[in-house]
Specification:
Blueprint lengths: L3 H5 L2 H37 L9 E3 L1 H8 L33 E3 L14 H34 L2
Antiparallel strand pairs: 1-2
């Protein structure tokens, strides 16, 4: 707990401002991590469009961001290892960032080979995610520019 002298000199107030800036930047960083991971999943779907029995995957970005932000922590059960060669599971697929739960996407139209990738859907989702990633990067760059301007006193 800060002392009265600590607060009288304004250190407590500046700490609050720094914490708020840190929270905003952390939020944007988590959003960028999730967008990047989603881009990898979508690219994998596109790359496997002709692979028999490949199931398209994606994440629910809004739910993943909410989980990653600590608003709601998902409950995960560790995977059981039944043989010596099994690796312990961490509840995520392929090194997913915190909060991202990979889900199979349902087939828009059935295919003979069991592949659930719909290239129109994948291309649209890929383009949308790209635009949103770019917007998040620009927003974060703007925040850093404003912070630098405030620090320099310009």
């Amino acid at each position: 707990m800060p002392t009265d002298a600590y607060c009288k000199h304004g250190y407590g107030k500046s700490r609050i401002v720094i914490d708020k800036l840190n929270d905003a930047i952390d939020f944007q960083a988590r959003a960028l991590q999730l967008r990047s991971y989603r881009q990898q999943l979508l690219a994998s779907n596109i790359a496997n469009a002709d692979t028999p029995h490949y199931k398209a995957v994606d994440i629910d970005f809004a739910a993943a961001l909410k989980n990653a932000s600590g608003a709601k922590q998902p409950v995960t059960q560790p995977l059981a290892t039944t043989a010596v060669g099994h690796l312990p599971g961490g509840g995520v697929i392929g090194g997913a960032p915190a909060g991202a739960q990979v889900q199979f996407r349902g087939a828009v139209q059935p295919s003979v080979d069991g592949n659930t990738v719909d290239m129109d859907v994948e291309r649209a989702q890929f383009a949308d995610n790209t635009v949103r990633y770019e917007a998040a990067v620009r927003f974060l760059n703007g925040q850093f520019r404003e912070l630098m301007t405030a620090i320099k006193g310009e």
